[in-house]
Write a structure and sequence with these properties.
- There is one protein chain.
- This protein is an alpha+beta fold.
- It has a single domain, classed as (Glycosyl)asparaginase (Glutamine Phosphoribosylpyrophosphate, subunit 1, domain 1).
- 34% of the residues lie in helices and 19% in strands.
- The chain is built from 11 helices and 12 strands.
- Strands 4-3-2-6-5-1-11-12 form an 8-stranded mixed sheet. Strands 7-8-9-10 form a 4-stranded antiparallel sheet.
- α3 packs antiparallel against α4.
- The longest helix has 23 residues.
- The radius of gyration is 19 Å and the shape is globular.
Length: 365
Amino acid sequence: MIKSLEALRSVEIGIGLFHMKKEFGIVVHGGAGKLARVSRSDLSKRRAKLVESASEGFKIMHFKGGSATDAVESAINVLESSKLFNAGLGSCLTLEGQVRMDAAIMNGDLSCGAIADQSLMYKSISLARKVMEESDHVLMVGNDSLRKFCDAIGYKTAGFEVSYPSRAQISRFNEFLKLVGSRKYSDWKRNTSLFNKYLLRNPVPAEQTGTVGCVALDADGKLCSGVSTGGRWMKLPGRVGDSAIVGAGLYACNSTGAVSATGAGEEIIRICLSKMVSDFMRDGLGAQLACEIAIKVLSKTSGNGTGGLIAIDKDGGVGRACNTEVLPTAVRLSSIPVPLVVISKEERLSQLLFSKPKGKANRQK
């Protein structure tokens, strides 16, 4: 039993975690989940899209002089537009067959913005950024209120609405609907008794995807975290998960690091998972060990298969941990020439970072 943070820091040094001063870069994830629910073809597509996302975010910072905030928004926009993840155009459906998305973004100076229960704009992270920069609020909920807000600030959402689910979403929805009808849907225990009391007279004629998240540290030492999601399949209308909750689904502080979480939102909210990681980093732990310990806490309180984390600390050390089978993740740092990708729970970013691919550090792919 390790009894002190000093001892933990010694362990961290002993296992050789990647941790370098003056580093900057970006980490993106495609959601924690089960490998069996993802085909090889889809896994390959998601890997490629994560590489594209990390490359785009890094390019914003390294070649265009953009901030960590710009990088996080751009990287997540790539994933939201892909239809491959549970965010944006690939969002899952509510019990009533509707798309309702949540998102949040947070800077290291503690400024933050979030949106929830909306289908006004599939690039949800961009709308959350507007709440952060154009209002005094942190969280805004619902299409009506967000539409009025966008009109007031002159922000155009036309062409970005999610007015009708895709065929893949409808097919998946119908599969879940059969499980609900036979009372075999296990993701929601207490909600099961409520399902048939909700209006399912006109369900929309509804593959496992994951929430997306991103953390970045720019060359000026500024941090940012972002997350975007469609929530959980068959959620009750009006449900808001961890992705829109600062301290749960994400957290960023320039004196510690930036964190993004994914998984069972209710369980993540209960223990303020992302803030926990930030607090561990404040106590001197690097990003990797902070993530690992926080996931152990999540597993102890909620069981396995409940979540994952990515993080980047104030010095550029990166972290990733999960208690699920997979957490597809891509990282692009100023010290490596191309993005690196890990998929399964067992793969460690530190192992790849220590065996960096050969090439010029400023080459972009």
